[in-house]
Q: What sequence folds into this?
């Protein structure tokens, strides 16, 4: 018998269709080449959309196509030098830069304007192009995060911090530049000088509310790290709370306070005590009548509307500080950050001694100040060497506790010194020192060194200018009065025969 092989009929065979394999082709990044061409053509065709587009597309790298990046850079250069922008000037600029041939020559430049009828929608096109750029950046950042996440040696907190930092830059449109030309820097400096000249008080930063101190600093400056240090009980928290109140209430600048030692309610009670000038002990005990409570509520109304944000997270790490500071800057426009206090923070790192950890914390605070372009005030403890010194107890830079990096990183170092704390009754010049404190500016990277004396009212947890004793100050000391007694008519005011003693030894500040 012959061996036969049964061949299935053609109709019974099934054709299997496999999906097209695109692995060799890959994916194209988000882009809008046609809109990029329309934007460049519109800028060379009409002048009207120029300002709007330049504000939206702040850097050439937002364009996807490299040729378009070079063309837009040429347009930006012409705009900066106040020269006219058209086909001829852009072509000439590219030629002088040596980029004309690489972008397609003069013919390609001319074709950009031929492809559009008007520049009416240039702003809308620009926003779409920026969105495509943001998507490309998110893909780049995500890919980098995924790659590092698979690396077992990667520190997870450093990876989180780096990812958030990159995303923050994209959100803010604040891509780090490698350098700036002297011309652009001089222009910025000139603008700041002109603004300062227009201000009568000479404050071009965030004013502290203390007149003599602001004369020295011209206000706390952007990107500065300010360290305020003192021994326990000198009034570090009282000083920064008084300043935060001045900044938020008087100047209406948003302030963030990171309190690692005290709870947010404790800080608020201190703010209330200073604003209403009611002893903190009476507030804790509720030691006043209903009518006095209504009066106290009226006096603290301004605090309820003040842009002060308090975070009392204990053992705050640098990673948390950076993340929260970014959000506060982005969501609330915070212009000053206060940290109480530096030695209670953790670096979040592994190993190393305490001095190395404090060095890392100090350096990171300075980096955050530069990144967010706002001043950061960090309170710091002083070593016990101050107490062991005989004679003069005034602190000096070598007394900074735990690390010399604090002195190195800080732009300003100030010490708080109250002679009363050491049972002294007068300053070295012979003047009485009761109810007074001194801010000693021991380091000032961009200014002079000077000592500023302030009034200190311990029972109200409050600092104020020495010459700031007003009619209301006497009345508060004489007792709570009805609202109509707090007018501006000084002639109707009678000074009390005996003022309360402000020199109470009770000072947990």
A:
């Amino acid at each position: 018998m012959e061996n036969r092989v049964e061949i299935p009929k053609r109709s019974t065979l099934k054709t299997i269709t496999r999906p097209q394999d695109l692995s060799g082709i890959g994916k194209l990044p988000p882009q809008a080449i046609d809109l990029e061409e329309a934007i460049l053509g519109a800028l060379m065709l009409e002048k009207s959309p120029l300002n709007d587009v330049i504000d939206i597309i702040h850097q050439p790298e937002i364009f996807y196509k490299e040729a378009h990046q070079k063309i837009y850079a040429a347009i930006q250069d012409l705009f900066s030098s106040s020269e006219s922008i058209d086909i001829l000037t852009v072509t000439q600029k590219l030629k002088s830069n040596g980029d004309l041939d690489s972008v397609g020559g003069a013919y390609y430049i001319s074709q950009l304007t031929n492809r559009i009828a008007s520049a009416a929608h240039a702003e809308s096109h620009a926003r779409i192009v920026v969105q495509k750029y943001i998507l490309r950046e998110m893909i780049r950042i995500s890919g980098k995060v995924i790659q590092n996440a698979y690396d077992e040696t990667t520190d997870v907190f450093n990876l989180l911090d780096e990812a958030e930092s990159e995303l923050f830059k994209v959100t803010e449109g604040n891509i780090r530049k490698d350098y700036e030309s002297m011309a652009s820097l001089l222009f910025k400096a000139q603008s700041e000088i002109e603004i300062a000249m227009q201000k009568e008080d000479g404050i071009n930063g965030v004013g502290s509310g203390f007149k003599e101190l602001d004369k020295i600093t011209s206000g706390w400056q952007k990107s500065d790290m300010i360290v305020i240090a003192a021994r326990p009980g000198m009034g570090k928290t009282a000083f920064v709370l008084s300043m935060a109140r001045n900044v938020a209430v008087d100047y209406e600048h948003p302030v963030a306070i990171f309190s690692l030692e005290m709870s947010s309610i404790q800080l608020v009670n201190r703010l209330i005590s200073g604003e209403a000038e009611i002893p903190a002990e009476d507030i804790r005990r509720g030691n006043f009548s209903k009518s006095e409570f209504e009066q106290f509520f009226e006096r603290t109304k301004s605090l309820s509307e003040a842009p002060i944000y308090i975070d009392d997270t204990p053992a705050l790490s640098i990673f948390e500080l950076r993340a929260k500071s970014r959000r506060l800057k982005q969501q609330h426009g915070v212009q000053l950050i206060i940290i109480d206090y530096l030695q209670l923070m953790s670096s979040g790192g592994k190993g190393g001694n305490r001095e190395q950890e404090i060095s890392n914390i100090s350096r990171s605070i300075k980096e955050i100040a530069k990144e967010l372009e706002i001043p950061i005030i960090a309170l710091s403890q002083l070593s016990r060497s101050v107490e062991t010194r005989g004679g003069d107890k005034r602190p000096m830079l070598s007394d900074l506790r735990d690390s010399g990096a604090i002195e190195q990183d800080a732009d300003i170092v100030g010490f708080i010194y109250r002679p009363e704390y050491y049972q002294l009754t007068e300053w070295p010049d012979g003047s009485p020192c009761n109810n007074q404190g001194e801010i000693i500016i021991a380091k000032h990277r961009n200014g002079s060194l000077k000592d500023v004396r302030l009034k200190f009212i311990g029972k109200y947890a409050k600092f104020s200018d020495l010459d700031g004793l007003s009619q209301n100050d006497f009345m508060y000391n004489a007792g709570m009065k009805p609202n109509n007694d707090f007018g501006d008519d000084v002639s109707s005011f009678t000074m009390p025969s005996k003022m309360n003693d402000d020199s109470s030894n009770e000072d947990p500040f």
About this structure: Residues 7-24, 469-509 have pLDDT under 50 and may be disordered. The first helix runs from residue 33 to 45. The chain has two domains: 33-171, 204-492.
